[in-house]
């Protein structure tokens, strides 16, 4: 019974810390970013808003979103700006492990490593993929 009482007291302390400081200030110090690999964003020429690439600089954070219902690739992972502007996808040759990690509840994120324009409709964007761990 003592263990249950102790757990309740600890839970109450954590909830009080969240209430006082906000969840991000309680959780963020406990998080570790684990580097997984570098890759390039595929399909940049098909992006509807080519202007979005002009704002990308080294270390700009990007969002990764699973598209398990994608008709071309069941392991598809969309790459977006933090404003949810679609930039392209993780290449099919690289996405199977990341898709499995995301499907199992792991949080993956990306940051721009480099970005330059190859030609008028094609941007080359290299990204660093990391997993957040607690």
- The structure class reads alpha+beta
Q: How many E-type strands?
A: 6
What distance separates the N and C termini? 28 Å
Average pLDDT over all residues: 86
Biggest sheet: strand arrangement? 1-6-5-2-3-4
Helix coverage percent: 25-40%
Q: Provide the gyration radius in Å.
A: 19 Å
Uncertain segments: none
- In terms of DSSP E residues, the strand content is 35-45%
**Sheet of most strands:** 6 strands, antiparallel
Number of helices: 3
C-alpha geometry: elongated
**H/E series:** HHEEEEHEE
Keywords for this structure?
alpha+beta, 134 residues, 25% helix, 6 strands, elongated, 36% strand, 3 helices
Describe what you observe in this structure:
The structure is a single chain. This protein is 25% helix and 36% strand. The chain has 134 residues and is an alpha+beta fold. The chain has a 6-stranded antiparallel beta sheet, with helices on one face. A hairpin with a 5-residue loop joins strand 3 and strand 4. It is elongated. The model has no long low-confidence stretch (mean pLDDT 86).
Offer a quick outline of the entry.
This protein is an alpha+beta fold and 134 residues long.
């Amino acid at each position: 019974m003592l263990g249950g009482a102790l757990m309740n007291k600890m839970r109450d302390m954590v909830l009080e810390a969240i209430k006082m400081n906000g969840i991000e200030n309680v959780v963020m110090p406990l998080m570790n970013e684990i580097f997984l690999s570098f890759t390039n964003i595929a399909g940049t020429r098909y992006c509807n808003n080519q202007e979005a690439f002009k704002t990308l600089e080294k270390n700009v954070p990007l969002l990764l979103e699973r598209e398990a219902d994608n008709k071309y690739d069941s392991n598809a992972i969309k790459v977006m700006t933090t404003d949810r502007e679609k930039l392209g996808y993780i290449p099919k040759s690289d996405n199977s492990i990341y898709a499995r990690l995301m499907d199992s509840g792991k949080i993956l994120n990306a940051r721009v490593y480099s970005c330059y324009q190859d030609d008028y409709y094609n941007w080359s964007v290299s990204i660093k993929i990391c997993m957040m761990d607690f």
